[in-house]
Amino acid sequence: MFLEIKEGTTKILVPQELTKSMFYNPRMELCRDIDIAAVATFVSSLPNRSHVTYADTLAGSGVRGIRVANEVGLQVSINDRSTPAYELIKRNIALNGLEERAVAYNENTNVLLLQTRYDLVDIDPFGSPVPFLDAACKSVKKLLLITATDTAPLCGAHTGGVRNYAARPLNTEYHAEMGTRILLGAITRELCRYDKAILPLLSYASAHFIRLIARVERGAKTADDSMQRLGFIAHCFSCGHRFAFSCSDMLEMRVGNICELCGRKMRIAGPLYISAIKEKAFCEHVHEELGKRELGKKKEAMKIVHNCIHELDIPFYYEHHALCKALKVPPPSILSLLDALHSNGFSASRTHFLDTAVKTDARIDEIKAILKEL
Ligand SMILES: C[S@@+](CC[C@H](N)C(=O)[O-])C[C@H]1O[C@@H](n2cnc3c(N)ncnc32)[C@H](O)[C@@H]1O
Ligand SMILES: [Zn+2]
After folding, report:
1. Which of 69, 249, 259, 286 could form a disulfide with 102 if both were Cys (CB 3.0 to 4.6 A apart)?
2. Residues 223-271: tens digit of each pLDDT
3. Nearest-atom index, ligand 1, CA of 60
4. Average pLDDT estimate for 271-278
């Protein structure tokens, strides 16, 4: 009924068939490999790592927490409310000889988090993390790691974004980034109530999920400052013009909703996080760490982090083929578009969110003018 597999340098018993009561998803190995390098990077900057506590709060087989105990050496609490999962977590702790470093819990995640404060808190739910955000924000001291797989409502493809996140997504070509930023915005607002703030270290979307890794800082002023990193994106569905603006611009009505390029009405998405969603130096360190470790998904993990390192901190992107289709020109290579943007004095980069997209500070009319010349 169980199969012994290996992730990183850790052995894990997993159910032969995927069940909800004993959950293990092999497709998330990539995410767990990146986590290991990110957690190792994060704790390497802390003075006394032997006392750092990590909570794997929705653990399934326990694979994340057990890997953190085994491959990074932290003290971990591994929790699942499903009793068969809890029994499996205990077996997996024993299988790796981690009884001194790992403790299994059979609790409701919110109860666990409201009772105990942890340095690092991991929320890896089925679907939306919203039911656990309040307790996670109250508990966490240093680092939040959060997954969302409800990408349809977050990205504006279904209703539900407004209801769950108190924010309006728009279904644009950069919906993956919009979902990531709406989630970061919701976490910022939730943390603020506890006089805490996040500084995103590494945020990415891949396949069906979004994963955020963010440093947590404390203090009323820090929390107030973090609200300045929230804002909105105005998008014109007629000509494709888009721009971001802050909440204070919105409150003081400094922004109109008529498109300056085509005169049509723009639509507004948000509130969402409009500041940087990664810290470059941190990502560089994670990339190095990935390179040094024994990991099953090393190549894919390094590619995502590499792309994050080189990505501009602009809160949206342009899909290259959609631009060329609108102009009725054959698409040149994406590298020649990037070169042309650079030689016209603009910043431009690729993005990990979409292979066929570019980020740039050029406006859409400026990008189109450049494309016509290529
Ligand atoms: C997506 S799975 C976790 C996968 C795991 N983190 C991994 O990397 O393989 C979500 C888990 O959360 C558990 N769960 C759902 N709601 C819960 C709650 N309120 N309290 C505790 N556990 C819960 C489920 O039993 C399930 O095992
Ligand atoms: Zn327009």
Report:
1. 69
2. 999 999 999 999 999 999 999 999 888 888 888 899 999 999 999 999 9
3. 27
4. 98
The pLDDT value recorded for residue 241 is 97
Pair of tokens at residue 184 = 């970061």
How many angstroms separate the Cα of 259 from the Cα of each of 72, 189, 206, 292? Answer: 51, 29, 32, 49
Ligand 1 pocket member 211 (CB < 6 A): no
Q: Which ligand gives the minimal distance to the CA of 257?
A: 2
Structure letter (DSSP) for residue 159: T
For residue 20, the CA-to-ligand 1 centroid distance in Å is 8
81 lines ligand 1 (CB under 6 A): yes
Task: Tell me if 295 CB under 6 Å of ligand 1.
Answer: no
**Domains assigned to the chain:** 2-228+271-310 (3.40.50.150), 318-373 (3.30.56.70)
Pairing, β 118-123 against β 53-56: parallel
How far is 15 from 77, CA to CA, in rounded Å? 21
Give mean pLDDT, residues 78-103.
97
Please tell me the pTM assigned to this model.
Answer: 0.96
- The secondary structure of 227-254 as a DSSP string is HTTEEEEEE-TTT--EEEEEHHHHHTT-
